[in-house]
Design brief:
It contains seven helices and seven strands. With 205 residues, it is α/β, with parallel strands linked by helices. Helix 1 crosses helix 7 and helix 3 crosses helix 4.
Length: 205
């Protein structure tokens, strides 16, 4: 079993990474492999609604998004981390997720996911809500914890001082490991995931 913690910050070793590290440690203690994925700090194109993914089988922009979707196909679960900017997640991460989930949605279905935030002070719950919508629209079980999934700090070393935040991250890892093992037992006992239908609608018709 493998979990992909995704670092959506511009800073590879910043506060977001500090929070993700706590989740990864808890997963590793439960015998779950993790492979960190940093989306980088270069500008990323937003989705242009070109619909080429149906023809190409991937996003038309051949960059780190397609690399990630390739890894997502063989991963079991995901942790998406982001700093908070003006009460919303990183714009780069949202562009990344828009394109990844639209071009490779099948790689995420029925795989548990969790959103993790880092902030100096506020805006975390609004940012938390934005990312959860990606998971719920893709039939992904959402992993919970014992408080809001965020850590506080302006610098990585300050995150370690947020004891409640760090315990929340640890509990995310524990809960995700438990859910992974439950799903694996279900699979071993012949319990498949649902075969869901999707019917698009147009409200002017």
């Amino acid at each position: 079993m493998k979990v992909l913690p995704v670092n959506g910050s511009s800073r590879k070793e910043g506060c977001t990474r500090a929070g993700l590290r706590e989740v990864a440690r808890a997963l590793q203690k439960e015998g779950i492999e993790t492979e960190g994925f940093f989306i980088g700090n270069k500008p990323l194109p937003d989705c242009t609604a070109c619909h080429r993914r149906r023809e190409l089988g991937r996003c038309v922009f051949d960059d780190i998004v397609n690399e990630f979707v390739g890894k997502a196909k063989v991963a079991d679960r995901f942790v998406f981390g982001s700093p908070v900017y003006f009460a919303h997640p990183s714009g780069r991460l949202l562009a990344f997720m828009d394109r990844a989930f639209y071009s490779g949605g099948g790689a995420f279905a029925f795989k548990p996911a969790v959103a993790v935030l880092s902030a100096r002070r506020a805006g975390t719950t609004a940012s938390f809500d934005v990312r959860n919508k990606y998971f719920t629209i893709c039939s992904m079980p959402v992993v919970s914890s014992t408080y809001w999934n965020h850590v506080y700090g302006a610098q990585p070393e300050e995150v370690a001082e947020d004891k409640e935040g760090c315990v929340t991250m640890t509990n995310i890892g524990k809960n995700m490991a438990w859910l992974l093992k439950c799903l694996e037992l279900g699979k071993m006992n012949g319990l498949p995931h649902p075969d869901n239908e999707k019917v698009p609608s147009n409200f002017i018709r």
